[in-house]
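tool_call: predict_structure(chain=1)
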Amino acid sequence: MTPRLSFIGCGSHATTNLYPTLAYAACTLDSVCDLNRGLAERNGRLFGAQAVYTDALRMLDERRPDGVMLVGPPSLHHQLGLEVLARGIPLFVEKPTAPSLAQAEELVACARRHGTFIMTSYMKRFGTPYRHLRSLIQDGTFQPAMASFRYGHWRSDNLDVMLHTMSVHIIDLAIAMFGSVATVHASSVRLPPGTWSVALVLRFHSGVICQLALDSHMPRIQERIEISGLMDGGSCLAIVDNVQHLEVHRQKENGIDLLADNLSAIEPRFALSDMQVWRPDYAIPNMGQHRLLFQGFVGSVREFATAVAEGRDCSPSPEEALEAMRVVAAVIDKPDGTTTLGSAPAHWDRIPAHA
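tool_result:
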């Protein structure tokens, strides 16, 4: 079936980054809702909705959609999310799932109680370079050992807000790559006039150690990840810079310069096949080279629509999506200290351990 979706929220982020993805997913936009009728009518007109509402509960009961996308403040995710899930309707929300871990857990419990699911839009999991790296890890081609993630963004003088609304993205990306977190070690400092720098060391049950440098004093979002490990029996380094440049370097000919009796005999040795690079190519007719695709927005919405159509759970599962919020809760509880999160859930065994 082609699922009929209702969309609650017509703000700038939803309108710019999420409504356009519906054209790339196997679904139809049945109805839109916003307290501001003008915004609801605008989005209904722009994206072809069949009906426009300012009352979300009325929309749910009259339209009876197959799925609901809800994008607004975290408090709205919790408040209206409970209403959606209590009707047995699958729910898609932006991050954070709710204002607190306890409220997010309440939403997951409500979904399970009513035989449905809630999907949190951790879209970085679906970004083109990250999806490729993750597939190499999951099929055992690349065995990661150590990682360094850098994520900076604009000012936030509240540690809770900084971690829940922004840094949770890169934390979830690490979880998507390496599995369940065993321990969290945090070191945090608040800088005048109200920004935060947070250094995390996450140790995963898979054996990988990931360092995360997080800060809220950048003029714009800056993001870079480096993962080292083994590939084809040799050392490997994978780099993603700002979601739009992927490099994979393998140690074969490159960088090996054997000693010789005569220095004049030494020549650089390299093999281009040991260096792989990807970056977007916007030239027509490369339809797939679109920001909404390689940043992961399309992949996230496609997964939700497909899960609704197939009557299955979403990926990441509701329980898996809570993992990043547990890490955030640990840091807020101990901004300078170590927290043990417990044993690995059974569903994490698909992430290969480093050999």
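agent: The mean pLDDT is 91. Proceeding to next step.
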